[in-house]
Amino acid sequence: DSGVTQTPKHLITATGQRVTLRCSPRSGDLSVYWYQQSLDQGLQFLIHYYNGEERAKGNILERFSAQQFPDLHSELNLSSLELGDSALYFCASSVGTYTDTQYFGPGTRLTVL
Amino acid sequence: QQQVKQSPQSLIVQKGGISIINCAYENTAFDYFPWYQQFPGKGPALLIAIRPDVSEKKEGRFTISFNKSAKQFSLHIMDSQPGDSATYFCAASTPRLGRLTFGEGTQLTVNP
Questions:
Q1: N or C: which end of chain A has fewer CB within 10 A?
Q2: Taking chain A, what is the end-to-end CA distance rounded to the nearest angstrom?
Q3: Which residues of A53-73 are buried (b: 16+ CB within 10 A; e: fewer)?
Q4: pLDDT in tens, A43-54
Q5: What is the per-residue pLDDT for A42?
Q6: Res. A82: pLDDT tops 60
Q7: Strands B106-111 and B10-14, how do they pair?
Q8: pLDDT score, position B39
C-alpha cells in the first residue's frame, strides 16, 4: 500500500458526461501528479500540483481540469467525455522535488460507453 | 525530444535467468532516471533510480546501468523469479519538467 488513495476504483459513464476523480496524497506529501494510462499511449503525464499551485501541464485536454485543495487532496475533472477517454487514471504524490519518489495510487479505471 | 524509448516490449525469461530491459533518451537535460514496476491492477511502484553522475547502481537483484554518452540506461534483474513477472517502466525527469516521462513499458514473464 503506497499510502495514496484514489476514489472511485471504477467508473462507468456515457459519452458527453462529466466525472470527478479524487486523490488523497500520502501524509506530508505536497506534490500531486496525475497520469493517464491507456494501451496505445502508455503512461502519460497530465498535470502537477504543488501545495495548491499548478506547477506543470502535460498533454492535458482542455476538457480536463484539476485542482489541489488546502488539505492537499486533488480532484481531476473530465468533461464532455469521449470513448477515447477510457483509461486508467493514476494519481501520484511526492514530498516535493522532482527527484523525490513518486508514490502511485491504485488508480481509477474509467470506462466511457 | 521528450521521449524515452524502451525495449523490448515483452520478455520471457526462465527462473534464475537474467532479465535485461533497455531505454534510450534524447533530451540531455534529463538527470533523474527511475524504474517502476507495475503488477496487474496496481499502480506503478518505484524499483530503483539513478542519477547520471554514476554509471551503475545496484539494489539486491536489481541493477541499473547508465551510459551517459550513449544516452542509454538499462535494468538488469539477476536470478529472475516468477514473482518478478510484471510490467516495467523506465522513466526520466529534469528539474524544469518536474514530472516523469515514461517509456512504453516491458511486460516481463518469468517461467518457473
A1: N
A2: 31
A3: eebbebebeeebebebeeebb
A4: 999 999 999 999
A5: 85
A6: yes
A7: parallel
A8: 95
Q: Are the beta carbons of B95 and A103 separated by less than 8 Å?
A: no
Mean pLDDT of B25-50: 93
Residue B3 contacts A, CB cutoff 8 Å: no
User: Which bin fits A28, alpha (ψ -120 to 50), beta or left (φ > 0)?
Assistant: left
Give the distance from residue B16's alpha carbon to the nearest chain A alpha carbon, in angstroms.
28
Cell of A40: 496505445
The set of residues, in sequence order, having a beta carbon less than 8 Å from that of A46 and lying 6+ positions away, is: A33, A34, A35, A36, A57, A58, A59, A60, A64, A66, A76
Provide φ and ψ at B83, rounded to 5°.
Answer: -70, -10
State the Cα–Cα distance between residues A46 and A66, nearest whole angstrom. Answer: 9
